[in-house]
Amino acid sequence: MKELNLFSMAVPHAGLQAIDALTQGEVGKDIFKILSSKDVVPWHGGKTAFREVTNSKRSIKTPDDLKG
Q: What is the pTM of this model?
């Protein structure tokens, strides 16, 4: 959904208050409607980027795989 690209844009000076205003305001309501029409129910608007953990020793499938 191209509408969700909004959250991938780099806005270094906007700050968390601006993001809250966006996601909790009319724009956020519109995005939630779009998601709902696709049978997706958003439960939280996160403020951090997705994280990916990798290593060169083994696959990571459970938290225990991070030990050592």
A: 0.47
